Amino acid sequence: MDGGNPNLPVDWGRYRAVLFDLDGVLTATAKIHAICWKRMFDSFLKRWAAERKMSFEPFDSVRDYHEYVDGRLRYDGVRSFLASRGIELPDGSPDDSPERETVCGLGNRKDAMVGEILASERVDVFEGSIRLVRWLRQQGLATAVVSASKNCPAVLRAAGIEDLFDQRIDGHVASDLGLPGKPAPDTYLKAAELLSVPPAEAVVVEDAISGIEAGRNGGFGLVIGVDRQGDAERLAAAGADIVVRDLVELLPESLSQQEA
User: GO molecular function terms here (predicted)?
Assistant: First the structure.
């Protein structure tokens, strides 16, 4: 098996499964989520500030996105960001309408925005990531996608890659099973369990700090950070064993240099 090649950046022969985050790792949808978080929060914050005669401080789609919402379950992301601004809202219920100003209502408002974009735009993939997934499966490794997004099935279908994963743990599954979101390791641990692979023999691939922390907290054999935003140092500090700019770097050299 090529995975045992000592010249590879990763000795893939040591592992039986690879668990991938979705947004920012496999698909270029992180930017869609960042845009929708900003639109939703800015609209809310403007009203909140005006009603209290306070200055409006917009949501920062880089700093606030990565610090408080990236990689987290949707409602956890709402709570995390609002807490950073000292704002408390009632949780509400997951079936709250997007117009309700509850944690769930705001989360549902953001989700509706994402759905509108996904319905009208093509979902792009990171070709280097997809090449790695295909190669790993050829080597006999199991694969899973682990995402906080409830849009995960739609994104996988739109990108044409749903057949590349043996298991999927997404926002719907996490909610149904009562699994806490990242940085808790539970969603990744559930994926490994469904693949019948112990964490020590599985690899986690993430671009979010919370996801890296989840991989480290779960005792996985290897945690790989994908640096899409110039965050290599922060990813390493959070617990990534390896940080790459593109997952194509983890293929055998003869394959990584080929045209996608």
Answer: beta-phosphoglucomutase activity; hydrolase activity; metal ion binding
What pLDDT sits at residue 229? 84
Range of the domain at 155: 2-28+124-256
Spot the catalytic one: 2, 11, 21, 186: 21
Average pLDDT over residues 5-23: 86
Q: Which tens digit of pLDDT belongs to each residue from 47-75?
A: 999 999 999 999 999 899 989 998 888 99
Residue of 11, 23, 91, 246 marked catalytic: 23
Both tokens assigned to 255: 């394959």
Q: Which residues pair with 223 in a beta bridge?
A: 204
With a cut of 80, say whether residue 184 has pLDDT above it: yes
Together in a domain, 60 and 144 = no
Quick check: is 176 catalytic?
Answer: no
Tell me which of 89, 120, 151 is where a domain ends: 120
pLDDT over 70 percentage in the chain? 94
Apex 218 CA angle, 125 and 131, nearest 5: 25
Class of residue 153 by CB neighbours under 10 A (exposed 0-12, middle 13-18, buried 19+): middle
Within 65-125, where are the H helices? Answer: 74-84, 103-120
Q: Do both 134 and 243 map to the same domain?
A: yes
Q: Last residue of a domain, which of 98, 120, 142?
A: 120
The CATH number of the domain holding residue 241 is: 3.40.50.1000
Does the annotation count 21 as an active-site position? yes
Residues 23 and 38 in one domain: no
Place of tokens 């509400």: 92
- Is 128 found in the same domain as 110? no
CA pair distance 220, 240, nearest whole angstrom: 11
User: What's the predicted TM-score (pTM) here?
Assistant: 0.78
Q: For residue 226, list its beta bridge partners.
A: 244
